[in-house]
Amino acid sequence: MSSAPLIELINVTKIYGKGDAEVRALDGLHLTIPEGQFLAVMGASGSGKSTCMNMLGCLDVPTSGDHLFRGVEVGRLSMEQRALLRRNYLGFVFQGFNLLARTNARENVELPLIYRGVRAKDRRARAIEALGMVGLAGRETHAPNELSGGQQQRVAIARAMVTNPAVLLADEPTGNLDSQRSDEIMRLLVRLNAERGITIIMVTHDAHMASFAQRIVQFKDGRLLSDEMNARPA
Amino acid sequence: MFWSTLLMSFREIRRNTLRSILTTLGVIIGVAAVIAMVTLGQGATARITSDIASLGKNLLFVFPGSARRTTTVTSAPPLRVDDARAVLEEVAGVANVAAAAGRSALVVYGNKNWRTGITGTTNNYFEVREWGIATGRRFTDSELLTGAPVCILGATPRRELFGNQDPLGAQVRAGNVSFEVIGVLTEKGRSTFGDDQDDFVAIPLATFHRRVAGNTDVGVMYVSASESTETSNVQRGVEALMRQRRGIPEDGEGDVIVRDTKEISDLASKATGVLTALLGAIASVSLLVGGIGIMNIMLVSVTERTREIGLRLAIGARASEVLLQFLVEATVLSTLGGVLGIALGLGGSYLAAHALKLPFVFIPQIVVVAFVFSGMVGIAFGYFPARKAAKLNPIDALRYE
Q1: In B302-311, which positions are buried (b, 16+ CB within 10 angstroms) versus exposed (e)?
Q2: Domain range for A89
Q3: Which of A88, B158, B216, B338 is the most interior residue, by most CB within 10 Å?
């Protein structure tokens, strides 16, 4: 089900620090991600996968090489333009959920819509719809501390998809959850990928979680160690 | 975008109600202090103006001395009893004139004594100063003419010498002269300048001249202008007449000072105005300190909400939007503090005005100024923390523990 490349990393190198303290986080990385793919990124810590995710999330730019998003060279965009690119095309899910405390689920989900300039009435409707989609109908007015970990992550997923992003970047989304909740979250991501055609890029340590994806890449020392299609996603 | 930022900051402030109130406490107190100082200052000015008006309506004081040199009071020749009659008869617009002379004396009754002022004057004095008799009577014409040893007590010597006793008919002694008490004046209380207006004993002017002073000098004339006359015209008339009577040429320097109560009240208003400005300036320093308090808490808030800022930046907030959010938050906080401060300041000064028996003067301008100023404090002191927030790197901010 591969189609036109959505994201291309061409010979990307990322170097932090200078001189003796220099760290090559990415070292001549090539990676092409087509529209609609569910990609799992694996690798030990320090393998460069987090740096790669930051780059794919347009939070960081390569030291050398090209990062193309739908043919646009991200490395040449200003901070401002990258913020707008994130706003309009990307959704983020984090290991630590990163919900606003003392703010109810609906308002958390509405947050990215505020920056998109969506009117309050539409924001509300779309947030309620997104919460319904992740199975949290009726929990709209719950604050994060009134929700379980799995529910909080589902709020975070609703927040990421409420804007209908082209790409959803998930950084160890199940890292803080038990296996049952983790499976629920994974099935939700699979569904979003299948039903809405959202490209999903997920970092994980867990081979079981990775098995839900269509494609699994392994990082080592800033390069790809392996790149395999998953014949039978779970 | 601005509107939702505003709503967002209101939500943020509500999320942390107690901290928000503590944050704005400095601004609340600062604004309240400025409002209270200025309002009470204006109240004091109004009180002083009305106090001076209570000296007597359209009243002028005439006493010897040069307007240019303040030390020449003694060197200028004293006024004469005839001067009073001349002013009344010859200056247009004069309703009444009272001549008076005074000196300090120890007044003794029984085993009690009291140092007070003895004022020799006529019944006109009570007219021009609008002073009533509480008990007893005024001087009779014959007493005034013959210099009878009678006196009318002010409220203070009456209280000090007689306590609860009835003073009428009693003999009090000043120096080696005995006076019969024939009346007691009503109480006027303290004057604007803090001195006790009731602390004197009035005796007939002729008695004063013959038995106390041993001369016929007049120290001061109280001239009341009639209702319809401009006091400045009367002032000029009195000056011209006195110049003529004292043989001073048209172009020479006059040796009589004519002072209008309005002039005095203007002077006093000016003085309290300066004092009010000074107190207001001191109070606005506390407003500045309040601004620094807001800056501190906003800096803490930025650190505390680093992850939130990271999240906002990640999901597509521009740096400028994060800046705006924190700036609006600081400004809303300080303006809210301003509004509470205005309420507190007005309420506080209303109560204080009551307690101090000052009139409560509401000044809309100072309310507007305080409001605008508190908003500006928020912008000025919110900018630094807001810029710190906007400059955060989203990757680091998201990872911040």
Answers
A1: beebbbbbbb
A2: 5-229
A3: B338
